Amino acid sequence: MSQTKRSRSNQSRLFQGEYKSDLSLLASELKKKLDLLQPPTEITNIKTACDDLNIDYKDTCADGVCPQKVLPESLDKRIEQLAFRPNLQVPQTYSDAITDMATAISGYYDIILVSAFSSNHYKEAQILLEYIERTRQLGLQQRYGPLGAPNPYHTLTQMFGYFGDSPCAHMAFPQVETGFGIYHKEPLVQHAILDPWYACAVRAACICPVEQRSVQICGRFKGSKKIGLCMRNEQSGISIILAKLFREKYRAIVVRADSFQKAMREHKYPYFDELRNMSKLGYS
């Protein structure tokens, strides 16, 4: 069997339901990622509560079930709360729609690129492709602004509740942005990141629990004693997911916007030349 066919066969097996049903396998993949990740700084104030920040908010319990006040350290718990939570399963109708779109792509491709780079910007545009190689190892790269608000300021409390959390459990995590993101096709990313994000997106109670126009404008958050000032929908959702999964190493999988938005004409990066040279040397 060729290496390509073997890889394809293994990948197909990994995306089967049997893989998702084995929590320990996904937790093992998460551990590998966490061991590899080297954030500039680890997030250490995870247990900081709203009361510690004088935030005017109190959690409420329903039918004896209270929201989670601290994100779990246990890797099994992290996976369980994202990949196995009943209300974060993708409805079959939407799952079928994604499958139909995927089957419309014939052949097997390692990377698919669609771009509108003009010839005079060809070299500096390739600096963005450097993140593809990084994503192969890390699993994903998500853009964020270094001055972004802690996620609870720009997310309604209902969304946190949908994930089973208190918004106060997320005060240490800045909200990421969705103008730029790369996601590697692998079981951990599929089942613990993209599936719950998708599942939230197709349910109004999660993605848009109130009339959006009433919460569209965020305003100033610094110094505010209130959270849930506005709703950033898909940004809010992916920020919750990444915080729950990567926790203390959250900053290792987010990319500062200014690291690629300031690519200038003189910043040449011969990405494709490097790939060709690696191929000649026998690297794949």
From TrEMBL:
UniProt name for this protein: Uncharacterized protein
Biological source species: Elysia marginata
Lineage, opening ranks: Eukaryota, Metazoa, Spiralia, Lophotrochozoa, Mollusca
Domain of life per record: Eukaryota
